[in-house]
Amino acid sequence: MTSSNLRRWLYHDKHPNWITKQINQMVARIYGLGMGSSYSVTLKVHGRKSGKILSLPLIIAIVEGQRYVVSMLGENSQWVRNVRAAGGEATFQSGRSETVRLEDLPTEQRATIIKAYLQHATGARAHFPIAVDAPLSEFEKIADQYPVFHVVSI
Fold it and tell me: What is the CATH number of domain 3-153?
């Protein structure tokens, strides 16, 4: 099994399987302690159904000094639904806690961010139908499928 096939298996039908959920919990703890790269954070957001605080590891894209997060699993990702239900309010944990607001970016502004995201989010590449070094015009064609949020400190 290739690494791309393994990553797709871990997120069968764009949903994490039970192994992936365990791995994500462990990685979220590591990122939350500040032990990941400078691009890694743990996102904490209230669950829209349970109301419990849910934690998920994410990779940040930095473009022109601004921070962004991208949903590698697309529109139906649970964290995307939870962030939207919470009005964009969330917390980043990476050694320290930071309250943030995640603002949806319009589709026409996403391509550059997605391309930058894939430079650092190597594990996410298997979930995108184009190569990381594809021209920007190719990213524009898929931008409507992948939510991108601008990170605003509050």
Answer: 2.30.110.10
